[in-house]
Amino acid sequence: MNHNLKKILPKLILFLVLTIVVIIVIFSLNDITEIGKVLKNVNGAWLLFAFLFLLLYMIFYPLPLYFLGRSKEEKSIGFFDSAMIGTMEYFFNGITPFSSGGQPFQIYAYRKIGVELKRSSGIVLMNFVITQTAIVFLCLCSLFFFHELTNGVLYLQIMIVIGLIINIVILALFCSVGLSKTIRTLLTRCIGWIIHRKVFKGKLLKFEDSFNEYCRGAQETFKALLSQKLKFLLSIAVKVIGLICYYMIPFFILHALGIEVGVDQLALITAMTAFSVAMTCYIPTPGATGGIEFAFRTLFITIIPALSDSLATSGLLLWRLITYYFLMLVSFIVYLIFERVVACREKKNKDKEKLENTTCQTTENEL
């Protein structure tokens, strides 16, 4: 088994266990027979539209990484590599608590294709800030235009407010990490204090200088990318379009279930989905499993009176199947392709070096 696959195996097992538990709970609280009848009569054409908008999301969402990887001063990162690294984020976010695994793995993936650590860290940090900016922007627009979102039950209002505050705090924190020299100094001092503990016996002292250099380089990359205003704004615009495509998917699922929701409700449904995702960001389970299902189902039943329990649960299952499990599967396949592509490139480079060394040796012998 691949070494990297062995490392992620425990997370995969946790993800599968949580998924099974959530499915058992969902079915135990609802009439399985009724859910089965609803799912049996799903309209395939509308479901196809849902997959189409998922595809649009998958095209738009990784594009900012490609924009950020373009450079006149350094070697540009190709579209194919950027698209793969962007797509793999879904899988590693999906199997880690707080959806925290995507960014560290992206830095690892950039290293595998030969991008310096300080540059890749700056790119990934900027991409994360762009994503958070887009999420906060859409949530604030949703609150401004749709007061229905805060007119529901009290605990939903509390969850919406907490989710929005957490997203804004996370955005501010990561902007500070990318811009503030004080934050950088504080971070390096914390790491320095840990490194100088007796338990490490001085073995990590060499790491201290490289970590300081890494933090400095990552901030330089972040600031350089931020100064390119057109690229920054374009990346936010593309990310917003991608997220809107993702948040619109429940509209088509509702139609697939036979719920007649008009085009005039499309924006409201998009806003509800945005908050279903944003307000569960602090759920400490892989992919916010459990919390996001509860938020989605409760919000939709509260806002759309025509939804019965069986319809809401069926919609929830279809939504998670399309936007989470299917996306995770695609992301995992792309990860396997990426590892294969990198291995082939490394082998090709080794063969090239071997051939060059052999040629040089032959030339020396002839001389």
What is the SS-derived class?
Answer: mainly alpha
How far apart are the first and last residues' alpha carbons, in Å? 47 Å
Roughly what percent helix? over 70%
Record field, number of beta strands: 0
Order of helices and strands: HHHHHHHHHHHHHHH
How would you sum up this structure, described in words?
This protein is an all-alpha fold and 367 residues long. It has one domain (3-366). It is 79% helix and 0% strand. α4 (63-69) crosses α7 (117-145) and α7 (117-145) packs across α13. It is globular. The mean pLDDT is 79.
List its salient traits.
367 residues; 79% helix; mainly alpha; 0% strand
Q: How does the SSE layout of this entry go?
A:
Blueprint: H1 3-28, H2 32-40, H3 44-60, H4 63-69, H5 79-94, H6 102-112, H7 117-145, H8 154-179, H9 181-195, H10 205-227, H11 229-247, H12 249-256, H13 266-278, H14 291-303, H15 309-366
Helix pairs in contact: 2-15, 3-11, 3-12, 4-5, 4-7, 4-11, 5-6, 5-15, 6-7, 7-8, 7-10, 7-11, 7-13, 9-10, 11-13, 12-15, 13-14, 14-15
Short recap of the structure:
The protein has helices at residues 3-28, 32-40, 44-60, 63-69, 79-94, 102-112, 117-145, 154-179, 181-195, 205-227, 229-247, 249-256, 266-278, 291-303, 309-366.
